[in-house]
Design goal:
By secondary structure, the chain is α/β, with parallel strands linked by helices. It has a single domain, classed as Rossmann fold. It is 38% helix and 25% strand. The protein is built from eight helices and nine strands. The protein has helices spanning 38-46, 81-89, 121-131, 136-150, 165-178, 195-210, 222-228, 246-267; strands at residues 19-33, 52-66, 70-74, 96-101, 105-108, 183-187, 214-218, 231-236, 239-245. The chain has a six-stranded mixed sheet, sandwiched between helices. Helix 3 packs across helix 4 and helix 3 packs across helix 5 (165-178). It is globular and about 65 Å long. The structure holds adenosine-5'-triphosphate (ATP). Adenosine-5'-triphosphate (ATP) binds at residues 30, 57, 75, 77-83. Adenosine-5'-triphosphate binds at residues 30, 57, 75, 77-83. Residues 38-262 form the ABC transporter domain.
């Protein structure tokens, strides 16, 4: 497949549409440590190899998501999708550039994000609700709906460290979804859990979209992304390779995965 022209072809928000998420030239670097033992360190030092190196996970990434838009972030493993979501959510600070978010933000960016393992499901609803911006009265008003949606039954009064990964995710998703965020950031959470709950989540996200909320979603499931998003941003090595229609972004993902597999086979 011919590679699409980079971001120039972007279907960025229509001129004048207010931004819900504005990412401006964001750069993020991590330090990679190569030596984790004294022996290893000595060997590398003798060979005059560096013990650590700076690695650029995001390289001047810019993104303008309009209010009411649903945007998918795609890319092969390690391309920077989760790092970008973490920076948008404020969990990670960028090393360069800046991010602005308008309205209430809820992020499901790590499995069990925001849930405290030693607290019960019930306690976590109040704690996590508060972290996501709900006061006690709002959490109380939504409590029954959160519990019903999460469907964790008698486990509600158990510490969440005893939950299965599916139950963990159901509770985290339910709390976040009931905060009524203006901007919802979702990273791969729908890969966890049973198919029925997944359907329920997808339906909920569809309702979100229909009500004009903003979503930025990372998932490896292209069918899911196509059903929720019309715009796809494809990242490669921490750069935006494509920002435009979801179909082109999804085709790029298929092509890049194929290329990766072929390169891995050739290297064997
Ligand atoms: N805390 C960290 N320290 C060092 N390197 C990191 C850290 N977090 C991420 N990285 C590296 O940054 C790069 C981008 O990671 P990121 O998790 O954002 O990719 P991704 O596109 O979400 O990948 P995946 O699809 O596998 O989840 C990867 O090479 C990863 O190893």
């Amino acid at each position: 497949m011919a590679e699409p022209a980079p971001t120039a072809a972007a279907t960025a928000p229509a001129a004048g549409a207010p931004s819900a998420v504005l990412v401006e030239a964001v750069t993020k670097r991590f330090t990679l440590r190569h030596a984790h033992s004294i022996k290893n360190m000595s060997i590398r030092a003798l060979r005059r190899e560096p013990l650590r190196e700076r690695f650029t996970a995001l390289d001047e990434v810019s993104l303008d998501v309009a209010i009411g838009e649903s945007v998918a972030l795609l890319g092969v493993n390690g391309s920077g999708k989760s790092t970008l979501l973490k920076i948008i959510s404020g969990v990670l600070p960028p090393d360069g550039g800046r991010v602005r978010v308008r309205g209430r933000l809820a992020g499901l960016i790590e499995v069990g994000a925001g849930l405290h393992p030693d607290l019960t499901g019930r306690e976590n609803i109040f704690l996590n609700g508060a972290i996501l911006g709900m006061d006690r009265a709002e959490t109380l008003a939504k409590y029954d709906a959160i519990v019903e949606f999460a469907d964790i039954g008698r486990f509600l009064d158990q510490p969440v460290r005893f939950y299965s990964s599916g139950m963990f995710m159901r509770l985290a998703f339910s709390i976040a979804a009931h905060t009524d965020p203006d901007v919802f950031l979702i990273d791969e959470v729908l890969a966890v859990g049973d198919p029925l709950f997944r359907e329920k989540c997808i339906q909920r996200l569809g309702e979100y979209k229909a009500s004009g909320r903003t979503m930025v979603i990372v998932a490896h499931d292209v069918t899911l992304l196509r059903s929720l998003c019309t715009r796809g941003v494809f990242l490669e090595n921490g750069r935006v390779l494509w920002d435009g229609d979801i179909d082109t972004a999804a085709d790029l993902l298929v092509t890049k995965r194929r290329e990766r597999r072929a390169a891995a086979r050739a290297a064997r």
